[in-house]
Design a protein that fits this description.
There is one protein chain. With about 230 residues, this protein is α/β, with parallel strands linked by helices. It has a single domain (about 5-225), classed as Glycogen Phosphorylase B (Rossmann fold, 3-Layer(aba) Sandwich). Helices cover about 50% and strands about 10% of the residues. Strands 3-2-1-4-5-6 form a six-stranded parallel beta sheet, with helices on both faces. Helix 1 (about 15-25) packs across helix 5 (about 110-120), helix 2 (about 50-70) packs parallel to helix 8 (about 175-185) and helix 8 (about 175-185) packs across helix 9 (about 190-225). The two termini are about 30 Å apart.
């Protein structure tokens, strides 16, 4: 038994045409925006009322980022059902000056377009693990704020060597999550170097573990042909 990275770490299909069109349409400059993926599909995994608290935290993180950096936020989905609650519980309730800096995506997109956009962000933060993985695979520093009822995938952040980018939103303040993102924005070079180191470890584990799968499969088919 050993850690094997999620296969999404191997995704590298970026749609430049659609990604560039997205950046242009939303007035986003490479290296000068935060990609933000909330997880507010109401009541899923959560205790009663918890989603409202998480939505409030999301609004505070976005507000702190905008006021500290004066950089925009791309508020985007990982799954289609999260679009409506992100609008009603986050975007529509932001202060007017902050809302003007948020680019809300009202339509769903495919992962090739999403990863191209993530690759251009100075940082990414998400309550969804697969968006974090797409961001890291694109070389973008990615902070995962999670809640424990959502499962165990978050521990991959610890396993690949970036536990400081793993934050329990029910145990730490929105200010701490925002400060982590702001710190990345202040020294993006160091954060990208940390991301690259983590991805080298991911590649090593993928090679080792898929080697086991290959050898096992080859042994099986060799035995079948005897």
């Amino acid at each position: 038994m050993a850690f094997t990275p999620d296969s999404t770490f191997g995704f590298n299909w970026q749609n430049q045409e659609r990604g560039e069109a997205y950046l242009k349409a939303h007035r986003l400059e490479p290296g000068k925006f935060l990609a933000f993926i909330p997880r507010l599909d109401v009541n899923r995994f959560r205790e009663d009322g918890q989603e409202k608290n998480h939505a409030e935290q999301t609004r505070e993180i976005i507000t702190r980022w905008v006021k500290a950096t004066n950089l925009p936020v791309a508020l985007v989905p990982e799954v289609k059902k999260e679009i409506e609650p992100a609008q009603k519980m986050v975007y529509d309730l932001l202060p007017a000056d902050v809302k003007a800096m948020v680019r809300f995506q009202s339509e769903y997109w495919m992962p090739d377009e999403a990863q191209y956009v993530y690759a251009k962000a100075v940082a990414l933060t998400s309550a969804e693990m697969h968006s974090i993985i797409l961001g890291l695979a694109a070389g973008t520093p990615s902070v995962h704020f999670y809640f424990r009822q959502a499962g165990l995938k978050q521990w991959m952040m610890r396993d690949i060597g970036v536990p400081e980018w793993l934050l329990d939103q029910d145990q730490v303040s929105p200010a701490q999550i925002a400060d982590t993102l702001i710190g990345i924005g202040r020294d993006p070079g160091a954060a990208r170097a940390k991301t690259a180191k983590a991805m080298r470890y991911v590649a090593e584990r993928q090679t080792a573990t898929m080697g086991v799968v290959r050898r096992t499969a080859e042994k099986h088919f060799q035995s079948k042909n005897l």
